[in-house]
Known about the structure:
Blueprint: H1 2-38, E1 44-55, E2 60-74, E3 77-86, E4 90-95, E5 98-103, E6 108-113, H2 119-126, H3 134-140, E7 141-151, E8 154-163, H4 166-171, E9 174-180, E10 186-192, E11 198-202, E12 207-208, E13 226-229
Parallel strand pairs: 6-13
Antiparallel strand pairs: 1-2, 1-11, 1-12, 2-3, 3-4, 4-5, 5-6, 7-8, 8-9, 9-10, 10-11
Amino acid sequence: MYFWKGAILRVCAAILGLTLTTLAADDLAAVFARMDQAAPTFKGMRADIKKLAHTAVINEDTVDSGTIVVKVPKPHDFHMLIDLQQPDKKSVGISGTLVEMYYPKANEVQVKNVGKGHKTEMEQFLRLGFGSNSRELREGYEVTYGGAETVAGQKATRIVLVPKSADMLAMFPKFELWIADATGISIQQKIYEQGGNYTVATYPNMKLDSNIPDSAVKLNLPKGVVRRSL
């Protein structure tokens, strides 16, 4: 009697597991379909940004807020400007492989060019959920379905990405993206680092915009600013 009961439970569990796996695969395919539909027409967006950074060793969170503008006028031509206002003003401008970090209090801009040899990795990292398609994601990551959630007032689907590149995996063991059901664009991103640190970036009030001017993704630097190469 107990043998048959145990056998029946194991069969039911196997069927349930198979069903859940199939449903997850279908849901992931639906997310990919939305991303693939959005990718060809994504040229840019504007949004507010809330960035939470968690430091594991002291179990402390810091939160910055401001705005973000992204412009992708053509494939492999990525530009971004993050303008943080609270609690301290600072800005980050990215154009291709060039990264500029401006600190108004110090009147200093720190400049780093990662080099053409790392352009692909840089673009892959920056475009996570911003106009990337399913083929690009699957080429660079093992992707699994995370579940349906609501983020910044929008229905979204969370997907989990584990880098295939050993170099990237050594720095970032996992990413999570929340893809908005309505747009196929990432409304939230979570970046895991080694040691338990992570960063969560949320983009409320996102508006897609295909006519963003170049000036909107460039740092507005004052005269006399000190430039320092990293």
